[in-house]
Amino acid sequence: MASSRILLITGVSSGFGRALAQEALAAGHTVVGTVRSEQAKRDFESLSAPRSLARVLDVTDFDAIDSVVAEIEASVGAVDVLVNNAGYGHEGVMEESPLSEMRRQFDVNVFGAVAMMKAVLPFMRERGRGHILNITSMGGHITLPGISYYCGSKFALEGVSEALGKEVEPLGIAVTAVAPGSFRTDWAGRSMRRTPRSIAAYDAIFDPVRRAREEKSGKQLGDPQKAARAMLAIIDAAHPPRHLLLGSDALGLVRSKLAALEDEIRAWESVTVSTDG
Ligand code: NAP
Questions:
Q1: In 3D, which of 181, 188, 153, 157 has the Cα closest to residue 252?
Q2: CATH no. for residue 51?
Q3: Which residues form the signal peptide (predicted)?
Q4: What residues line ligand 1, using a CB cutoff of 6 Å?
């Protein structure tokens, strides 16, 4: 980034949020990070005082978000960049997974991110500048069996990001949906919520997926520090992208999905256009 900026990043205790905060601090920026405990707050603030600041906030505490953001604007300064990073993955066969898990998945990954954007936008709009990065996932473009609630939440955040970007671009605000592939964070480890198995009919399709994810946790291809550098580069860009994939796995899988989608659209084109008139 050319000049020193203030970044507000949700979920800086580990993974992408922590890596992005560290890279931004190393580049001379100020980072206000959200965490969920006093201990995590102390840890983060000791990283690079006085430029590493933390606020205790669960992004599902919707009633608290506006006042936390207003307090940051008043006491730290103008938030140049909001990074909606806080999120987690729910894993489970859809038929086996209670609706309460879907609500929680959407509360954190979608409603939390939207509440943060709604809190920051009045300030960015007033200034006529700002950049919002929403960390979605390749699971916001492609799907796998066993993570339907997660994919649903990330598709939702992709959609919200893209539409919001069209609304606020004329106001000087950029919105980028960042969709990582598999990275070495706590996502598939301590952070994942796994619904227990109950219906034997899904054993063949789901059990290998769960096993593979458990075995791969900690050994994924992607390096979060390199993702952080890529995100800093787009924050710096004159015309940031609306969508950014991170990782060659995401690139290959999303390209295949787009090609398969195009093939299916072509195969059924005559039925599609038969409804006009
Ligand atoms: P992570 O290491 O588990 O970090 C998740 C962060 O989000 C933690 O700081 C966590 O805080 C915070 N968080 C979770 N729920 C929260 C809530 N309700 N309120 C506030 N903070 C909350 O995993 P990560 O991979 O870096 O995850 C960051 C984002 O990347 C997520 O949105 C995830 O879906 C996305 N993503 C990850 C991958 C991957 O392969 N790693 C791929 C695509 C997308 P606590 O420490 O308090 O739990």
A1: 181
A2: 3.40.50.720
A3: none
A4: 10-11, 13-17, 34, 36, 58-60, 85-89, 108, 135, 137, 180, 182-183, 185-187, 191, 220
